User: Fold these one by one.
Assistant:
Number 1:
Amino acid sequence: MSEYSVVVAEGARSRFFTLEPVELPELESGPNLIEHDSLANPIHKAHQQSIYADTRGGKNRKVGGQAHGYDEHRQRFDDEMEARFARDIIKHLDGLMRTNGTRRLILCAEKRMLGFLRQALNGRIPREVHIIEVAKDFAKLSVRDLHDRLARNGYLPARR
């Protein structure tokens, strides 16, 4: 059982952690942040390269004619894609939290993804779980660096 669960997410990937105590605190450094799983969003990776056949945006102008704007609904597609990924993240997190007895949840994501995660959380996490939102993209940090950053800001207990 772990009191803390941590999710680090961005548009293409999410990582799931728990903070685990050490077996022999007088001999080992701890507690330790342990990575349990990750999810990938392959559509996010592909979207810059192949989803949109024509990457032009902005204005379309006929020769000698008046310019007019066009909307390819790319933003709506991007929003739906990230919202769907956020729902998958929360569904996966719900299973992890049920098995380890989480009391504190730390969500780390850039502001846009954090908004989608907040919407996806609606009613999925028990009320007694304290949620801490960190509007930073920590997706590329090592486990040790992530733990150090979160501990330095007071979100997790520091390693001893």
Number 2:
Amino acid sequence: MTNSVMNEKLLTEHKISVLLIDDQPMVGEAVRRMLAEEKDIDFHFVSDPTIAIPTAEKLEPTVILQDLVMPEIDGMTMVKFMRANSKLKNIPLIVLSTKEEATTKAEAFALGANDYLVKLPDRIELLARIRYHSKAYINLLQRNEAYKQLLESRDAMRKELAVAADYVTSLLPLPVAEGEIQADWRFLPSASLGGDSFGYHWLDDDHFAIYLLDVCDHGVGSALLSVSAMNVLRSQTLPDTDFHKPDEVLFALNESFQMDQQNNLYFTMWYGVYKKSDRTLTYSSGGHPPALLMNGDEVAQLRTPGMIVGGMPDMEYTSDSITVKPGARFFLYSDGVYELKKVSDGKMWDFESFVNFMASTTGPLGSPIDMLIGHTKELQGREEYDDDFSMVEFVFE
């Protein structure tokens, strides 16, 4: 990940800066002397009101002191101009007047002034108000800066997740449109990228391996663990493991990917081996939803008891098998394809309804998955999924 995402930037430190706008140089000198000993305060003075606004835009002070009685421009009009200016509208504005008048105060506050002082104010009171208003404005600047950094980090994170999703997708197997076993799939990563991955390949001329795993949590870390596990399956590099035996594969994965060594991440898993010569599918699962085999008129849910992979060492896994009829359809998926909230009543779509829907699907290879995607998007009333949508369909000739 980029440093902009991983490392929080420090917020800008702002020094108190005062701009006094008053046509009387003697007032400017008096205020300058009041602030001269304050090393943390920069003081600026403008006696010509016609250049006050461009000067303020250039200096970006943390507080503006402005006289209400000036030649060439009315002080109240100047307040209006300040508040209409996009660069100056949030800078604290303290108006200075020679009179303590309630109506003048009310008008100044109505136009956007933040405070009112009768000049020349007491030095202690002036400093207190300058520091009070400057602190509030600096806090606003830093809050806005932090929010901007948050947006930038979020955008950078989204780009990182998009790159990670593209990487995961590039490792997935190509669809198979012809042959004894045909395969097609859909992988729709969620906005925060989960840990789904899957694969299939021939172990030898008679055995075809099928697998899908789903890492808990979301983000790049989950995706990397998923890819690591998929790579050892694809390369068959688990030690002392017969990849023709699903229970051995899950046992070896559990020993190799213990969660205390994987940043407390674990995954669910379904692994099966189809034997072409006798049309048997042997399978084992660990905490994963059952695969669905549309075997003629029968809908078989293929799942064995077994804990999540990586939860505890020395866990035992079991295998089961089923005969696959010619023309059977087989669906392997993650729970993100059916665990969604219906927009109609706010309730979760139940698993039985999902199974019934898949049993009703028809059409060429891949069409049932597309039908499911269309149906689930309609159910939840939006295009995006909260979890990865991963489903693989196989047809056994």
Number 3:
Amino acid sequence: MILKVHKASDRGNADFGWLKANFSFSFGNYFNAERINFGALRVLNDDYIKGGMGFGTHPHNNMEIVTIPLKGSLKHKDSMSNKWIPLEVGEVQVMSAGSGIQHSEMNNNAEEELNLFQIWILPNQENLEPRYDQKAFSVSNRANKLQKLVSWIKDSDDDSLKIHQDARISRIDLSKKNNYNYVLKNKNYGVYLMLIEGEILVNNVVLNKRDALEIEQAKQFEIEAIKHSEILFIEVPM
């Protein structure tokens, strides 16, 4: 097993006034040659957006984009005729940019700050027809058990959202002193673990809020919750 810790304080960042962003990987004006990607995972941004502000219309192509609101409300519109669809905490959004799409993402509340994760995953097929989907996931369904949010479009055996890559994004909320054993698809895959809240122990490594851990060449690994903890897993081919 290969483990690499990324402390929250070591992330790249930007402050545009209306947007405060934290970058797990090189993005925009932040460049770190040692943090370009993790397998098929290209971007994990932790964005804080002021009330009424957001990203104006801009293009994407050939990227699987996943958005997870953590606080507040988002609204989305795009060139596929979707007009200001709200996205709330508890919901997840996927957008396959494919051959090309224009979209805009705004804070849906004029007064409250919005916090979200935006995840970009490289697709295993390019120039496909763009697609959009979103879904609500119950918090109770991830209490001390894994809740799959996103998976490969060829996997039809669950209710997760789908992308054009053999990857999966999952969450779990572990109560204090509880353990969970995460099993990977195979050793050719890796997991990027982001601790949303709490404190956990993984293979004698302690992680705190917004710390991350790269895990490679492992069949499985065990997590112990030192405190009540919310954990995000992004498992991708390496």
